[in-house]
Design brief:
270 residues, alpha/beta, 2-enoyl-CoA Hydratase, Chain A, domain 1, 2 domains, six-stranded mixed β-sheet, three-stranded mixed β-sheet, 11 helices, 15% strand
């Protein structure tokens, strides 16, 4: 396991968690999620860190989960891996008693999109490409927060098609707090962090906990756990189209398999 897939850095009262697989567009693997969990736990106990920022090294925040890295041998094992890696990482972010900011540029897709949704705030660059494409591959959204953040019509539009959207749209829908030019992204995040750091830490902690409980009482707490079973049930319902796509992933790699899938459907829909 590459111990540098996740980096941590402290700058004054700001703690940075940096997704660090730039040559792979920071795509997640189970070991990378495990490193993210450790980084969050590290930030939790640093009393002089007031705000935590999650961002990506290189060209983007993250292009999602590394499908090529999946090594589960059964649906039971796959479900357990989700629970103790990806799902636990998002819960750690959601429950962290310090404000968290997702600093997004470039791709922010799939599992990375879920990480951004788990954060308290999201500042995006105008070159951002965000979305939840899993439904196109026979699965679906994991951290099911979008229905609690945006209106029902838009939620259906993006979760049922799997299409992506840009930073401006993310801000208009309520996924992001602000969309700025890429060159202004660092400063925009620092400005928000400064505003948060000026609030007494105990007040922030209690207020965040209250907001989380309000959303959880609306059903989010239940569905945040239920998606694990829904996701694995969806895998058991694998169709011929999904089976062919998974075979192409093994044969061609993820990028070329997605290209094959798009061409396949273009021909069918003519």
């Amino acid at each position: 396991m590459d111990e540098h897939m996740i980096l941590t850095e402290k700058k004054g009262y700001m703690g940075y968690i940096i997704l660090n697989r730039p040559e792979k567009l920071n795509v997640f693997t189970d070991p990378m999620y495990s490193e993210l969990i450790k980084a969050i736990e590290h930030m939790e106990v640093q009393d002089d860190i007031k705000v935590v920022v999650i961002k990506g090294a290189g060209r983007c925040f993250s292009a999602g989960f590394d499908i090529d890295s999946s090594q589960s041998t059964s649906h039971v094992e796959e479900r357990l891996n989700y629970d103790r890696c990806a799902h636990l990482a998002r819960k750690k972010i959601w429950n962290l008693m310090k404000p968290t900011i997702a600093q997004v540029h470039g791709h922010c897709l799939g599992g990375a999109h879920d990480v951004a949704l788990a954060c308290d705030f999201c500042i995006v660059a105008d070159n951002s490409n965000m979305g939840v494409p899993e439904i196109q591959f026979g699965l679906g959204a994991c951290f099911f927060a979008m229905p609690y953040m945006i209106n029902l019509r838009k939620c259906r539009e993006y979760l049922l098609t799997g299409k992506s959207y840009d930073g401006k749209t993310a801000c208009e829908m309520g996924i992001a707090n602000k969309c700025v030019p890429l060159e202004e992204l660092d400063d925009a995040v620092k400005q928000l962090a400064r505003e948060l750091a000026m609030v007494p830490a105990p007040s922030l902690m209690l207020q965040k906990r209250g907001i989380n409980r309000a959303i959880e009482n609306m059903g989010f707490a239940t569905y945040a756990e239920q998606w694990l079973d829904t996701l694995c049930l969806g895998a058991l319902w694998e169709s011929d189209d999904v089976r062919r796509f998974n075979e192409k992933v093994k044969e061609l790699g993820t990028k070329n398999a997605i290209k094959w899938r798009n061409e396949y459907y273009e021909q069918l829909l003519r």
